[in-house]
Amino acid sequence: MRICYFGAFDLSYTRNNFIRRALELNDCHITYCNVPQSWPTYKKIVPLINQYRQVWRKCDLIVVAEFCQAIVPLAWLLGQITGRPVVFDMVIGLYEASVLERGRYPTSSFPARKLYFIDKVAGMLSHKVLTGTIAYKEYLVNEFRISAEKIQVTPLGVDNHLFCPKPKSKTNSCRFTVLYHGSYIPNHGVDTIIKAAANFSNDTRFSFRLIGDGEGKANAIRLAEQLGVENIEFLSKAPFQQLSDYIADADIVLGVFGDTSQARKAMANKVLEGLAMQKPVVTGDTMSIRENFSHKEHLWLVPLGDARALTEALIFLSADKKLMARLAEAGYSRVTDRLTPLVVGKDMIANFHRITESQ
Question: Among 87, 144, 207, 287, which one is most buried in terms of CB atoms within 10 A?
Answer without folding.
Answer: 87
